[in-house]
Amino acid sequence: MPRKTILLVEDDHDIRTLLAGFLSGEGFDVAMAEDAVAMDRLLQQGAPDLLILDLMLPSENGLSICHRLRARGDLPILFLTAKGDETDRIVGLELGADDYVAKPFNPRELLARIRAVLRRAGHATEPAQPRKRRAFAGFVADLDARAVEGESGAVVPLTAAEFDLLACFLERPRRVLSRERLLDWTRGRNADTFDRAVDVTVSRLRRKLETADPAAVDLITTVRNGGYLFAADVRDA
To answer: Given this model, what pLDDT does residue 49 score?
Structure first.
């Protein structure tokens, strides 16, 4: 398999160097940037497979960077945040970040999160399977291509995390799914108890489906003390 490329944006020289060395030893090609200017310069040379982005950066912070990059595409983004900085985590997820790791962190945990994000984003090589397409409420989701189209054929731009959540609902329609189960299914065993990540991703998914088709309101309903329920009929397409 070709080596995956990670762009690491971190202003602390020691952390940047140590982390790059660790990831290189785990089989990744790592490019480094100390701020947004250096990052933009590297992005002009080509998109990496994953962006690791520190929140606290000089000049332009990680939240601002995430916002403008999300407006341009779906590059997978993993945030490095200060431990306990829950507000920034929520805002980062709202802006479309795929995951976050709180500092100080265990490098092995970070590695597991990186691999999970890459896998969700479709960068990992997987055995060929029969093509799976699901139709629901005027949309068609291609589970293999990880793409969703509306009735007009327009693509609904979902991040990896949003598509993973939608796929969970499509495989289990009209069932109440708890936040804990959704968190486990979409982020794996390495997820912590920060279940607001599920709430934020559900909110973003709802908003994008409703933007594509205003009739899609109430497609995902909240069940008090239960979790969420996907209210649409789902069929093979």
So the answer is: 95
- pTM, two decimals, is 0.60
Residue carrying structure tokens 């990670």: 6
Residue 174 has pLDDT above 50, yes or no: yes
Residue with tokens 């802006």: 95
Q: pLDDT for 151-162, tens place per residue?
A: 888 899 998 889
Residue 123's pLDDT band, with cuts at 50, 70 and 90, is very low
The one-letter code for the residue type at 129 is: Q
Cα 12–chain centre separation: 25
Contact 67, 73 (CB under 8 A): no
With a CB cutoff of 8 Å and minimum separation 6, the contacts of 81 are 55, 88, 89, 92, 100, 101, 102, 103
Residues in the chain: 237
Sort 29 into a burial class: Cβ within 10 Å, 0-12 / 13-18 / 19+: middle
Q: Which residues of 79-96 are buried (b: 16+ CB within 10 A; e: fewer)?
A: bbbeeebeebbbbbbbbb
